[in-house]
Amino acid sequence: MENRVKVYRAMKDITQENLAKSVGVSRQTIIAIERGNYNPSLELAFKIVKFFDVSIEDVFIYDEASRSRAGPL
Amino acid sequence: MVFFTSVSKLDGRTYKILLAMVITAIGALTAIGISIGTIYLPVITLITGALFVQYMRRRTNEVIYDERTTIINHKASAAAIAGYTLGVTAIGYLLVTMGSTIDPAYKTMGYTLLYTGCGLLLLRAMFYYYYGWKHGG
Prior knowledge:
The complex is a heterodimer of chains A (73) and B (137).
Chain A: E1 2-3, H1 5-12, H2 16-23, H3 27-35, H4 42-52, H5 56-59, E2 60-61
Antiparallel strand pairs in A: 1-2
Chain B: H1 2-7, H2 12-35, H3 40-59, H4 67-101, H5 104-134
Helix pairs in contact in B: 2-3, 4-5
């Protein structure tokens, strides 16, 4: 699964740390999501898109062709 | 007082440094306790250390544990269980074999190791079914 968290974060001009605090996770988790190393849970994904005030499809792109290596499990 | 004031504002990096120090101290004191043959020192050290870590965790101003660390913990635990089970099975089997040829005492050690592996797997299976039941499915 791809995501545009970094893009929306840049558009909002906020740091990884501020986003992490706002959605209640560690900065390392935001880094892992942005790098595509970790797929967030549905709950965290909704928290992130709610923070950016966009729909979930705008930020997270599910591409069945490219199988994820990120998990979550 | 100064210590507690600074502890109340622990950042993630300080927490990790303190955690490493606490783990090192627990390991060292537990080893000393075992070497001098007392059970009280390791037990007291472990309890104090666990309480101190809990205290530090509550005093951090950063999120230390979240869903990602939970998954990492799960994977690490699963790998540790698999590694331990394979290890004790191999060593246990070797000791049982040595017990038949070299010294019967090895056989007891081998069976003890094999039983701990079985016990761990049994415990794991029990928790697996418990959590499977608890979370539906």
